[in-house]
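To illustrate the input format used throughout this study, we show a single complete record. The first block contains the structure-token representation of the backbone; no residue identities are included at this stage. The design step must infer an amino acid for every position from geometry alone.
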């Protein structure tokens, strides 16, 4: 008879699907970088699909697009530092060591991105 699998996760998982970028290193040497999508997230870990297999025990930096805006205007990213604990066909699991929300520079709306150049005038009369 097969034994039931013991749940090792401490935090409640939430099925949140957000885009992310990641950077992996081992002993401070870069291994790879890329993008992917989260599968689920908890206070202790992130499961994401990177599009390939990531080496176990690699140090991971994840930058996850956060769905809320700061002050209803400024985009946020959840910056996660952790360790790859598993990577297989289901995705790559990262145990979170630390995290923080980072704000991104506010981008002006397209209609206000650049002021229109001044109209060209006749230098002698000031007429257009």
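Output of the design step:
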């Amino acid at each position: 008879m097969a034994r039931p699998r013991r749940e090792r996760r401490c935090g409640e998982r939430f099925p949140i699907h957000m885009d992310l970028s990641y950077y992996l290193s081992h002993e401070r040497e870069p291994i790879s970088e890329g993008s992917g999508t989260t599968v689920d997230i908890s206070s202790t870990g992130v499961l994401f699909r990177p599009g390939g297999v990531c080496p176990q025990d690699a140090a991971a930096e994840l930058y996850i697009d956060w769905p809320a805006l700061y002050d209803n205007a400024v985009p946020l990213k959840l910056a996660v530092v952790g360790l790859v604990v598993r990577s297989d066909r289901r995705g790559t699991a990262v145990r979170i060591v630390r995290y923080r929300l980072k704000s991104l520079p506010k981008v002006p709306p397209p209609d206000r991105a650049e002021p229109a150049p001044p109209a060209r005038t006749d230098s002698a009369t000031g007429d257009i």
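Structural context for interpreting the output: The chain is about 0% helix and 50% strand. The two ends are 90 Å apart (CA to CA).
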